[in-house]
Input
Amino acid sequence: MAEGGRKAFVCGHPVAHSRSPMIHSHWLQQFGVAGSYTAQDVAPGYLPNFLASFPERGFVGGNVTIPHKEAAFALVAQRDEAAELIGAVNTLWRQEGALHGGNTDAYGFAANLDEKVSCWAKSRSAVVLGAGGAARAVVFALQQRGIADVRIVNRTVERARDLSYRFRGGVTGHPWDALADLLPDADLLVNTTSLGMHGEDATVPNLENLPEHAIVTDIVYVPLQTPLLAAAAARGLKTVDGLGMLLHQAVPGFERWFGIRPTVMPELRSIIVADLETRA
Ligand code: NAP
Output
């Protein structure tokens, strides 16, 4: 073991904005683990070398963030089931001499809803806005939890359809202008587009057609209360913000590298909320 305990990282480019070091450092301190978790800025051309050499630099593993999740998928020797279906890797570790990659975004998405609105998994139909990398993890989570009818709605309809073909039956792709017709029997609405992100176009889809029992969740967490969540709350619908997904997706990696399974507690959430407010 490296001097000073086990070392883990998050690699991305840029990576300074990542909250992962705050999350893992909080747990290291909470459990009195002598280890570290640091941000490593790795430019795309250096990723193969970084992934091949991190054990020599004393790291036991780490996270992968934008823009490396797809590239890391191609570079690992073994992948878990989630990574395989999602087509992206966000967690790395070494096992029996080989580099393994997993994806914990789907776990984080589902665990956040489990914590906040445990009835969500009884949903029969869900509408997912967006068809990018995050949408793949969300659709995987919805299928894993038995939601039979998943409708992906995207500005570029071809991407919605292509994404639907990755999954077994029950997932369909639709153009943005079909949204009004898809909402009346939706139990769950998930935004995975960058719409509403700080400084981005904040056009909110019309939520009038959603049933009264519908749950609305946004995986964007800057700002915490996105325009979509504000509109849903104004209509009296249950809402869940995206910060919990970020916190929960970190749990399996911490357990793998440091040997303790942490629980996401309100104190950690408050620390990250304070940081989001400071950096806003
Ligand atoms: P991505 O692969 O770039 O996909 C972006 C998606 O947003 C695409 O579907 C794109 O549609 C859509 N979009 C962008 N601008 C739009 C607009 N003006 N109108 C309508 N649709 C628009 O990004 P990603 O990796 O999936 O990430 C999406 C968001 O999720 C980001 O804000 C990210 O921070 C967040 N996220 C959060 C967590 C978490 O832990 N909470 C985890 C992962 C990601 P087109 O296909 O038509 O371009």
